[in-house]
Amino acid sequence: MTTAIIAAGGRGRRLGAAVPKQLLTVGGRPMLQLSVEAFANHARVDALVVVLPAEVVSNPPGYLRHSRKPIRLVAGGERRQDSVANGLAAVDDRTDLVLVHDAARPFVDADLIDRAIDGALQSGAAICAVQVRDTIKVAERDDADAGGRAWIGRTLPREVVYLAQTPQAFRRSVLADAVRLGQSGVDATDEAFLAEQAGYRVRLVEGSARNIKITSAEDLALAQSLGDERRPDPGVRSPKSTTDGGAIGGAESQLAGIDVGHRTPDAGLSVGLGYDIHRLVEGRRLILGGVEIPFERGLLGHSDADALCHAITDAILGAAGAGDIGRHFPDTDERWRDASSIDLLRQAVCLIRDKGFAVLHVDAVVVAERPKLAAHVPAIVERVAGALELAPTAVSVKGKTNEGLGEIGRGEAIACQAVALLRKA
Prior knowledge:
Elements: E1 2-7, E2 25-26, E3 29-30, H1 31-40, E4 47-52, H2 54-58, H3 62-65, E5 71-75, H4 80-89, E6 97-102, H5 110-123, E7 125-131, E8 136-141, E9 150-156, E10 162-171, H6 172-183, H7 191-197, E11 203-206, H8 217-229, E12 263-264, E13 269-282, E14 286-288, E15 291-293, E16 297-299, H9 307-319, H10 325-328, H11 341-354, E17 357-367, H12 377-388, E18 395-400, H13 406-409, E19 413-424
Parallel strand pairs: 1-4, 1-6, 4-5, 7-11, 17-18
Antiparallel strand pairs: 2-3, 6-10, 7-10, 8-9, 12-13, 13-16, 13-19, 14-15, 17-19
Helix pairs in contact: 4-6, 6-7, 9-11, 11-12
């Protein structure tokens, strides 16, 4: 079993931000989310331990609460090595290989993870590193020099100098010895140093120039420019909808210039359309968007019959070319009887993530004569956004009537439509 420890327990004080630096966004998403997803989506990683500031552990973001792989959250320590020690203590007992990665390196990719794992499997310990290109000078300073000027003391052969990165990978026993050494009083800036001091040889595997660590404001600016290169243009604003008062989010539409069902390879964007309708019957709860709506009747279905979640699920699956809700959660399967559709939506997000897609925006309409939804829409948006791992501003839900026409107008059914915009990684 292979477990990844994501070190994100620091405060990033050198960056001077109001929040821990790992929560700052790069390319539209928090760098912590980018780092976590790189390992959660990797086929050779079985579980994750994420080390966080204590206040984040008690109120974690949605992408840490809902993951396709097990994630344990633990509080960090005073130093980085203390945080990694806390993380190791939380690793599953079945783990035999441990990866350690800094959340502040959000551009880690599958190839780097593979190389670190292979190196540790062959040698016991391995780190990603890049060979320096510049000539390295070791400085000397004259204590008597009031100006603090530096002089060249010696020149190092650059072919033997490497810049250490993460991920760093270790057989569990090796990392355990390294951590014990750190707990005995040895200070270190990474686990590889502790492993060296504990008597192990640590293998160097090829790193990446893009795998930068964000420490300063200049690093953040560079990372954001790199992230923007990978992020599609979100498009233009759409007009706000006129509804029965149930519209919220009025969010910036990211659908401009894209036809439904059409994928634009240059932008990496795709759009899906979802629709669902259910009959209203007595003796059922009315659930829409994961929120129970007080009403004398509810929707009839195999699951909780949440037509809004079903429409959104079909929209994101369709945009990813992943079939529909009936294919993945058929009503002939007893596993889904009375299932929570908001949970099915979360599973659909994991399914499309496996195909390399991320949801950018969802716009949905609930068509119902009664009940009126305006008072419930904020809670619905919050629940749906959490399931989609989006900010509430990226989800729009509107309530409409059918003007008394048809089975919906007669109050016999509720229908929902949804459009989802996805980005291909």
